[in-house]
Amino acid sequence: MYDIPYLTEEHHQVREIVRDFAEREVRPIARDHDLEAKFPWENVKKMGELGFMGAPWPARLGGAEMDYLSYIIVVEELAKVDASHAITVSAHTTLGTSPIMEFGSEEQQKRYVPLLASGQVLGGFGLTEADAGSDAGGTKTVAVEKGDHYVINGAKIFITHAGVGEIFVITARTDPKAKQRNRGITSFIVTKDTVDLEACQQLGVGHVPDLPKTPGVRAGKKEDKLGWRASDTRELILEDAEVPKENRLGELGKGFVNFLKTLDDGRIGVGALSLGLAEGALNECLSYTAERKQFGRYIASFQGVHFALADIATEIEAARHLVYYAAWLRQHDKPYKTEAAMAKLFASEVAMRATTKAVQLHGGYGYTTDYPVERMIRDAKVGEIGEGTSEIQRIVIARALLGDLVNVTGD
Amino acid sequence: MKIAVCIKRVPDSEARIKIGSDGKEIDGSGVKFVLNPYDEYAVEEALKLKGAAGAGEVVAVSLGTDAAQETIRTALAMGADRGILLKADNAGVDPLPAARVLAAELGEGGYDLILLGKLAIDDYSQAVGTMVAELLNLPCVSAITHLDITDGKGKAEREIEGGVEVVEFELPAVLTAEKGLNEPRYPALRGIMLAKKKPLEVKDVTLDPGGLEVLKLALPAERKAGRIVGEGPEAVPALLDALRNEAKVL
Asked: Which one is catalytic: A145, A246, A387, A391?
């Protein structure tokens, strides 16, 4: 199972380090942080020190200088134990930091990436709005040029790290008259203070006092979620936010094109997270069915249980190859949009099926918070929704298949 | 300060062990191997001493097959400066030939301190460290739980029955690490790539045949399931009887 063609000895070492960390530092706190919807600041600090928060970025910018597959392995291994930790790393890395790495000027990279890659502060990505989710072209947030800055008004919803984070990439409409609704959207970098100032100052993580903050940017109410409860999801509100022109990220009007690339990356991340979650659920089933007795036998000795375990394992194996293949394409600068969509679509649906079967195999115990599979089934669901729903993934895949044959965009 | 740490590649304590077809060795296929946990304490202590001194060198030395290079790289990823593999295809189970090979290497190195785990969790012989000290004619403190080094002198603590023994010694010395000496660090991701660039020297060695021979390996008997003798105060007599006459612990 280990010697798959995409991985080197270094990747196995990454896996060992993260697995060890997840077992010793994450497993003991995962249940309580989920139940109390508490953000794991202590572990964020530790993960920053170990390089988990900036795995693929260069050392000169504070990263661990590993490759993209290493980052994918970090997310997968954390998700085996706790999906909230995994999405914290994934959203921070691919959504919060990668747009600055991909589209930022050298000056922007030097200013923001070292803070993010080292895990000193958390980053996020503000795209979704009340009327713009799967339809990102519906963005209503507006940026108006005024002297040496832009004034931005709007509200972004379901933003990972909107509360705990300090650095965000957001999109806003800069040309309301653009003929195509996907044009005229531009990306900006905005900053704010973390909502957990006191705890952050005490722990020495999550807050940088001398980072200039954007006036008019604040976090809204924390979402009470079904899963990923130990991760932070809120509204990010921009009210007459004064954003200096130097904080424009990438070219004017290129925001839409740019964030599509960010979303492709995010999809591989959610694919890896879902893969890890399914593997974690299988591990729980293996130990539970080998110790639970019914009718005088371990339930792992029943053929019905064999069938369920075999199905989960086989689907996981297929998901693993899709996720690693998409990550490998990304790492080797080959087109990966369709493969990223396939990996995310398949792995997230595998995670849902695997965790559902896992709860069933655990019976009544699986329905209680005493066993991790109860959390896992809740954590799995959002994989089919976040960073592009399963339906959007199918549309992305179908468009790639049909290409010029049919005008699939409806324009 | 120049410190050598002897490390060993051992099966993970959670690995499911199968005995090989010859009945004398474990079947290593599919078994995860790790850096011996007691050696991790030794590596951590060496890195801490170097860090506190602000200068020095930590050398990870392992006796084993080529696969032990992976274990050395773990120590390098944690922060050791270079590695030496004493390559032998079959290091056997006799601690004395192993100690002789290690002592020959370490005696040449000009080390101020030689650290080892107090035992390796594969064969539990708990002998190599003290044998190395004896062969090199150096002071030895085994199973230490605390260490201070100041001005070329050392002070170590070891747990003994009912108390703590404090031992002073001159450098160079050989020390073996007990659990509790420190909390070993996780290697940072960056350490993996840095480790690739650190020197790892491979030296072929030959061990004497030694005087020990493994005749047979056997798995421990399966533990019997627990038994509930009853509930509440009424169960106490039955429980006492079982503890006295069956388990014989009272």
From this structure: A387
Range B2-204 has CATH code 3.40.50.620: yes
Q: Taking Cα atoms as reference points, which of A82, A75, A80, A76 lies closest to residue A28?
A: A82
Contact state of A20 with B192 under an 8 Å Cβ cutoff: no
Q: Is A9 a catalytic residue?
A: no
- In the chain, the amino acid numbered B187 is P
Residues of B with Cβ-Cβ distance to A59 under 8 angstroms: 190
CA B147 to chain A, closest CA, distance in angstroms equals 26
Q: Which of B192, B197, B222 to mutate to test the interface with A (most CBs of A within 10 A)?
A: B192
Which one of B78, B189, B190, B196 makes the best mutation probe of the A interface by having the most chain A beta carbons within 10 Å? B189
> Which residues of chain B are within 8 Å of residue A114 when distances are taken between CB atoms?
none
Give the sign of the dihedral formed by CA A159, CA A14, CA A69, CA A279. Answer: negative
| pLDDT tens track, chain B, 250 positions | 999 999 999 999 888 889 999 988 888 888 989 999 999 999 999 999 999 999 999 999 999 999 999 999 999 999 999 999 999 987 778 999 999 999 999 999 999 999 999 999 998 999 999 999 999 999 999 999 999 999 889 999 999 999 999 999 999 999 999 999 999 999 999 999 899 999 999 999 999 988 888 899 998 888 777 888 888 898 999 899 989 988 888 8
- Model pTM score: 0.89
Distance CA(A242)–CA(A190), nearest Å, equals 9
> Of B222, B225, B215, B209, which Cα lies nearest the Cα of B101?
B209
Q: What element of type H or E holds B75?
A: helix B68-78
Q: Do B192 and A17 touch (CB under 8 A)?
A: yes
Every domain of chain B and the residues it spans: 2-204
Query: Shortest Cα distance from B110 to chain A (angstroms)?
Result: 31
Answer yes or no: do B192 and A13 touch at CB < 8 A: yes
- Cβ partners under 8 Å of residue B8, min gap 6: B35, B36, B39, B62, B63, B64, B68, B71, B117, B120, B122
Looking at beta carbons, which residues of chain B come within 8 Å of A17? 77, 186-187, 189, 192
Q: N- to C-terminal Cα distance for chain A? A: 46
- Reported ipTM exceeds the 0.85 cut: no
Q: Distance (Å, rounded) from C-alpha A145 to C-alpha A179?
A: 19
Under 8 Å between Cβ of A282 and A330: no
Of chain B residues 156-195, which have a CB less than 8 A from chain A? 186-190, 192-193
